[in-house]
Design brief:
alpha+beta, Jelly Rolls, binds 2,5-dihydroxybenzoic acid, RmlC_Cupin_sf, Gentisate 1,2-dioxygenase, dioxygenase
Length: 339
């Protein structure tokens, strides 16, 4: 008799008993590792490619933040991606759409905008711009100096689900089909929302959550909020249609860690990518110290135990973050543990 293991392999089968422990582990063990990308180290190369590579040669000029545990295809966590994009004055990045959901968190520069389904959405540092799945978007820069931002997408999740579609618009840029920044102006004051022709969908209709409003929200809270033991005074950007996360697969938050803040260790099934808006500190992830400073980006894999600390006794730290929590929650797979 031939080796029965070889025979069953040729028949397109596998012995479950040899795989069981890996497929049904007691708890998740991500292939993604805790990792930090230093903005100051990346910036010179972004500016180099802004000179060396035209946007006729590249769909987008982006350095992908590749997790050492997820190199092929590159991803930042199992479900999420982060990249740093640069565009210089006079350039356009051509219009396209994809089923992957995207957002931009603006890091530096002035004078660029993204046109999303015909609405020009202008960028300022600290703004959160949404490009939900299957929305047309192109970028343009009419200011001076380079404009840099953090891109967040869920393509690792979408592609794992075999749900990825992509399409070019056909013309390089979209014509403006709505007043500039209309969606932000209509919706940002969330307790008074347009009552005509409502078309609630799974995505927030807001093109830009401006930094000025985020700063106002923190200012209004002042020092009065208790905040989370693990995540500080943390605010969720919400969809005004339903109060939920901004997009069905990606949730975005902004947190203030008070001077001297030391968080209670916590873990959750969603993976998280952080961008340091202000300040410096240390996040310990499964025992590994990620020492972050302004504009850095770091990844916390799902179910990794994390603990934030603000390194300063006198200044706030401010962390923008995004997760796949909306998707995981919708699938009934959200879990968390606080130590
Ligand atoms: O700006 O449309 O970082 O399509 C990755 C894919 C940015 C974009 C990324 C994209 C974009």
């Amino acid at each position: 008799m031939t080796d029965p293991y070889e025979a069953i392999a040729r028949l397109g089968t596998a012995p479950l008993w040899r795989y069981y422990g890996n497929l049904f582990a007691a708890e998740p063990k991500s292939r993604a590792v805790p990792y930090l990308w230093r903005y100051a180290a990346l910036r010179p190369y972004l500016l180099h490619f802004a000179d060396a590579l035209s946007l006729e040669e590249a769909e987008r000029r982006v350095l992908m933040l590749v997790n050492p545990g997820l190199t092929e295809p590159p991803a930042t966590t199992t479900t999420l991606y982060a990249g740093i994009q640069v565009i210089v004055p006079g350039e356009t990045a051509q219009a396209h759409r994809h089923t992957a959901a995207a957002f931009r968190f603006i890091i530096e520069g002035r004078g660029a905008y993204t046109t999303v389904n015909g609405e020009r959405v202008h960028m300022h540092p600290g703004d959160l711009l949404l490009t939900p799945g299957w929305h047309w978007h192109d970028h343009a820069h009419e200011g001076d100096g380079p404009m840099l931002w953090l891109d967040g997408l869920d393509y690792p999740l979408v592609n794992a689900l075999d749900a990825g579609f992509f399409e070019l618009y056909g013309e390089r840029t979209q014509k403006a089909a709505a007043p500039d920044d209309l969606s932000s102006r209509q919706f940002i004051h969330g307790r008074l929302t347009p009552a005509w022709d409502p078309q609630p969908g799974p995505n927030s209709p807001i093109g830009n959550y401006p930094w000025t409003e985020t700063a106002r929200a923190f200012h209004a809270i002042a020092d009065d909020a208790v905040g989370s033991d693990s995540d500080g005074v943390v605010l969720e950007y919400t969809n005004p249609w339903n109060g939920g996360p901004v997009m069905p697969t990606i949730g975005c938050r902004i947190a203030r860690l008070r001077p001297g803040f030391r968080g209670t260790p916590r873990r959750q099934t969603p993976s998280t990518i952080y961008h340091v808006v202000r300040g410096a500190g240390v996040t310990t992830v499964d025992g590994q110290r990620l020492e972050w400073g302004e504009k850095d980006v770091f990844a916390v894999p799902g179910w990794a135990l994390y603990e934030h600390a603000n390194a300063s006794a006198s200044s706030d730290a401010v962390l923008f973050s995004y997760t796949d929590a909306p998707a995981i929650t919708a699938l009934g797979l959200y879990r968390e543990e606080i130590r």
